[in-house]
Amino acid sequence: MKKFYIAFLLLVSLWLSACQTGMGTQPADTTDTTEGTTATVTDTSADTLPVTDADTREDASLPGQSAEQTEPPAPETSHATEMRVTRGDLSIYGKLYTPEGAEGKYPAVILSHSANMTCDSMNSYCQRLAAMGYVAYAFDFCGGSKNSRSDGDEADMTVFTEVEDLEAVLEAVRGLDCVDSQSVYLFGTSQGGLVSALTAAAHPDAVRGLMLFYPAFNIAELAEKFGSFMGGNEENLYISTLQGYDVYEHIKPYTGDVLIVHGTKDFIVPSSSVEKAADLYEHCELHLIEGASHGFNKENYAMFGDYDQESWAYVVAYLEEHAGDGA
Description:
Low-confidence stretches: 1-41, 44-75
Number of domains: 1
Largest sheet: 9 strands, mixed
CATH topology: Rossmann fold
Number of helices: 9
CATH superfamily: Alpha/Beta hydrolase fold, catalytic domain
Oligomer: single chain
Order of helices and strands: HEEEEHEHEHEHHHEHEH
CATH architecture: 3-Layer(aba) Sandwich
């Protein structure tokens, strides 16, 4: 009975990723084209988004501290603005966070959300990064959920259209005046983690480092196992594009430094999946959080408690180490 319940949860998770409900679209805004790229950015800086201290609760430990010793960072404020990127005829909605009063060029982190979510699930992470002196950009995948503010339909969304979204965003963010184009990191959760890993492998020179929370490296395996329950593999674009796809072979080419943080009670992505990936990467540190499931905070549907303190401590340590290398 327990095995059936776990299989059912896996099926529901994959179905959420491949759901075929429609969503509204928004017109693309095409101004300020970055030279040499196909990505177009519109910074609607007049629509400044509020940043509250409440969203920076339980921040990660500083290097040299344990999670138990963690204190929230000083209440530095960050500046958040809506920013759109275009991919072909599609407009991608996102939010750009910068340190308050930022001048010059800064390292940047691009954050990719889990399936069936939006960039709002990354708000607290973005605020923390900006408080640390990073530019952070989180965006809604096209067709990524019924609540996505980007163009596109859920029925047309696949892992590979999301890679195309991230490629456009990566190119645009690297072209921003406030960003050091040689110090851009990718951060992703679940399916967003997989998309980040695939994008980094395809563009290794553009990605300084890779940070992944519970990445869905087993998603093609789930598609193989449960695709027939969703009306047939050939009838579902999301499922059909994953048939026979070897995720591990496609993420392996990335040779930069990789951080993976995963929960020991993750019922969607088993630890064996991330352990296999960690063995394939040339430079990878894997941290397993005892008791954590698929999601480390309430914004990402954590089931067995809030594990932001412990998980974010690894991110802080990772970025601190690379800042010492000139990031």
